[in-house]
Amino acid sequence: MKSLNLGLVNSIAMKVYLDNAATTKMDENVIKAMLPLYTEDFGNPSSIHSFGRKTRSVIENARKTVAKLLNVTPAEIFFTSGGTEADNMAICQSIDTFGITHVISSQIEHHAVEHTIKVLEKAGKIKASWVNIDSKGNVDLTHLEELLKNNPRSLVSLMHANNEIGTLLPLKEVGELCEKYNAIFHSDTVQTMGHYKMDLKELKVHFVTCAAHKFHGPKGVGFLYIHHAHKITPFIHGGAQERNMRGGTENVAGIVGLAKALEICNNEMEEHQKHIMGLKDYMKNALLNAIPGIEFNGETAHDKSLYTVLNCRFPNHPDAEMVLFNLDILGIAASGGSACSSGSNQGSHVLRGLGIEMERPSVRFSFSKYNTKEEIDFTINKLTELFSVKEKV
Ligand SMILES: Cc1ncc(COP(=O)(O)O)c(C=O)c1O
């Protein structure tokens, strides 16, 4: 703690959680909906007695709720252990089922997608092409079309919103391109599910993924949407659960929590969008005024950027690598990259992929409905103080 003025530490007034792209606090109404599944309604949904029948019907109701919110049929929703499993299932099993030999993706995908594709390529199952992206993380659609033209019947895997920088993919446009070249289209929608209304019937996407913990639901549960005309083989074997598509006793409470969380998000979406967009704009403008030289990684305009994420590139600092640590000491939780990779010291593969100067500290702040303007003011003040410290003490 060399550059941090101890006076700042002593003045900690609150704990601020601005790492909502990593995970979110659960909504109390979600917890309430889940509790009976741990107490009186604990039956195994595969059991044929009344305890089992009860939890079976609870799962099917949750599936109906999710399907209705996305304008698809319940038969197209398959519950999983979360986003990583759903991404793996979509990629591995669509390649297997449809005999795909070429995959198009980008170098700034979440590791659940990027690593999976690289493993398959190393095993000689596919050849991967990486579509060009610009310095803000936008996919070059002309290059995508070229790749599709040269490799018909590819699998395209491109995320809806980048979890580190927030840049959005024009899902509809990419879906139409995929349709034109007879490609299979998977989109990792883990960061956007629950944050935007989605009509999957309108979008020409065959697989989308979800993780409940990104929208005030429980951890360890998600789903894969599989378009009815693109049925794939199972990824996990060993049981008849999820209509023979995913062996293993279901996470019943988690599934109920997921459906409840998605329902709450959809019901309250406009209000929360407005609140969170307001916080993001406020923080962005205040930082621009307070910290000369600050820039932002990825897009920041509302129509091009996930409204829950603001990735700041700060000016050079004597202790650049200590910024996140200093923020933590001050009570502010943020992230340098995705939570999954923050244990590694290689830096963010996303920022590297964009050609961002890695010497300057970049911090991802991500917001939720529970954040307040007071918390943002606190964070802005602490950042301003941190970046006005020029000399090591
Ligand atoms: C874009 C994206 N995809 C996939 C995942 C993985 O989801 P889960 O943690 O549920 O496995 C995450 C989580 O950080 C994510 O942000």
Task: Sum this structure up briefly.
By secondary structure, the chain is of the alpha/beta class. The chain has twelve helices and twelve strands. It starts with 5 loop residues before the first helix and ends in a 5-residue tail after the last helix.
What key attributes describe this structure?
393 residues; globular; alpha/beta; binds pyridoxal-5'-phosphate; 12 helices
| Category by helix and strand content | alpha/beta
- What percent of the residues sit in helical stretches (DSSP H or I)? 25-40%
Q: What fraction strand?
A: 5-15%
Q: Which of globular, elongated, flat, extended, rod-shaped describes the shape?
A: globular
Order of helices and strands: HEHHEHEHEHEHEEEHHEEHEHEH
Main pleated sheet: 7 strands, mixed
Low-confidence stretches: 340-345
Using only CA atoms, what is the Rg?
Answer: 22 Å
Strand order within the widest beta sheet = 2-8-7-6-5-3-4
Number-wise, the strands total 12
Integer average pLDDT = 93
3D architecture notes:
It is a single chain. The protein is of the alpha/beta class. The protein has twelve helices and twelve strands. The protein is globular. Bound molecules: pyridoxal-5'-phosphate. The site of pyridoxal-5'-phosphate has 16 residues, from helix 4. Residues 82-84, 87, 110, 112, 159, 163, 188, 190-191, 211, 222, 338-340 line the site of pyridoxal-5'-phosphate.
